[in-house]
Here is the input.
Amino acid sequence: MHYIEQISINGEFVTPHGTERFDLYNPATARVTGQARLADEVDAERAIAAAKAAFPAWARTTKQERIAALQRMQAAVAARHDDLLEAVIEEYGAPASRSAWMASYPAEVIAQAITALETFEFTTVAGAARVEMTPLGVAGLITPWNSDAGFICGKLAAALAAGCTAVIKPSEMSALQTQIVTEALHAADLPPGVFNIVTGRGDRVGETISRHPDVAKISFTGSTQTGKAILRNAAENFTRVTLELGGKSPTLILDDADLDQAVSLAVQAGLMNSGQACVAGTRILVPLSRQAEMEQALARAIAAVKSGDPRDSTTEVGPMVSEKQWQRVQGYIRKGQEEGA
Here is the structure.
């Protein structure tokens, strides 16, 4: 059993002011695998204050100093690859075909930020003007459960590269991955307050971050409904907001498409990450003249997809992350059948 009792504020592991306990599940077995103690509004306020206090010094760092910090961060996260691999299988049910990438991506996305920073010009000339890009302030980074470690590392690396400090609210459903990443970040010896990680519910921690006047920027990945709420909250302080929301991304198959190739790619696009991805191709639009053959080809392709135990190397689709998510999928299936499927 995993018991996660601390969050990270101002460079230290601290016991949250919040007292709520959240059960962690293995979605492949539906068994409780641990508990996480959740942060609350007080913890979020403390984290924002720590990030605000750390901002002036971090904003003055040079490009080389930031690159060096990101390199330490990348090395520390890469060193926890095996732990992350186990965590994404246990608490997310990612199949072997996906989990290896999910464990490697957090370090890879930091490397991408380093490459971008190395070539980024903070000072440019526009006519007679000299334009300087300066750090914005405290960034509030709110991340989802479907690629927890990757989103934390990607958003944080970008913020640090820009000279901003950060308060991160990851999903409580991915507390084990968050714990591993947090330990790695501490090992990277980043200055206190530059990053703060407060795992808690969106209506408490997320709400505080999105409303707080000391948060200059919010980056959110998650549901459209929550994105709307964040926009409303942020408008009060004119906080800058970037949203990456869910959708029904279409795959277009045209008249002249090679059927075997198109259907294979369409199925891959729809079932990536067990279908639990905001970029998954969850609709397929085809020419009416080819509808019948497309339906037959898709039926054959889907029948060949293996779902099951995420630890089985041949599994392509693992379990849904939660009972709620599974029920949602069943609802879509029923709706399709009611409409004539």
